[in-house]
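ok so I'm stuck.
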Amino acid sequence: MPAKKKTSKPAKKGIKYQDKSPGQPELVPIFNSLKKLMKPYKKGSIKERGGTGGQYGLVSEMEIEIKGKKKPEVYFAGLLVQKGYVGFYFMPVYAKPEMKRIFQPELLKCLKGKSCFYIKKKDPIIFSQIKDALKLGYEEFKKKGWAK
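replied:
not stuck anymore, here's the structure
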């Protein structure tokens, strides 16, 4: 009798979190609430990018110069549904690190790296602080001439 061919079961193809649309179901309300906070800044030179699939961003479509290099646009803020959190990417704090000093402790606890905040729950205190940060960041972009 011929030997049985040993066959391994095909690996289960799990859906990666970024393949889901818009991502982890429990994170959708967080994503939608943050997106709603960002929408008022879609004006003038600041345009939307994405909006589906767990991604949303605001970009100032103005040619600017940073440290002698010309850039066709500058990123303002964005959202990305990750595996266990919604990433809130806030470039004004990257462009002006001293902005961190005005953030409240609750929001600072969410900061990972230079400009990414991990938002894991729908917390009205953190959302209020993000709303304030967006306002200040937009004002800073206008001062620098990065937004009209």
